[in-house]
What does this fold into?
Amino acid sequence: MVAAIRITSKGGQEIERRLARFVAANEDIDPLLSGFGLYLESSTIERFEFERAPDGSRWKPSIRAKTEGGKTLYKSPGGLRDSITHLVHSRSVEVGTNKIYAGVHQHGATIRAKNGGYLAFRLPGGLGFRKVKEVEIPARPFLGLSGEDETELLALTEDYEREALGGAA
It folds into this structure.
């Protein structure tokens, strides 16, 4: 099973216009797209540190982070944060994860017990268990472009344009 999320930028028209110009000039834009991917990978990972969505809003803290300490969406190495990567294609770059549960955290979800039963959870501090019919997982967006990301991508594009087209920006 593959999960995919497509995000486009409202301010990306200028970047798209310039990329189209590079392609029309038969320029190899893979180095630029690789730069985009590395930057966006880093920016996305940084969101886990500050527990913020691309729009700057704070994530709702998880129960685990509140009771045990630590960060929301980050329990141990090798999880969601550490799986963020990028892939460069001929005319695009993808930034994301291969974790099947990523979409639940990006968009939120309602988890229901199978066959009308109950979900059982151990309460923190040895207080026993709690049974519920469903659990609401709030959206905690980590993928996407912030305003700062858009500014940086445009700066990377301008730098590339100066180098690739000999300063004809």
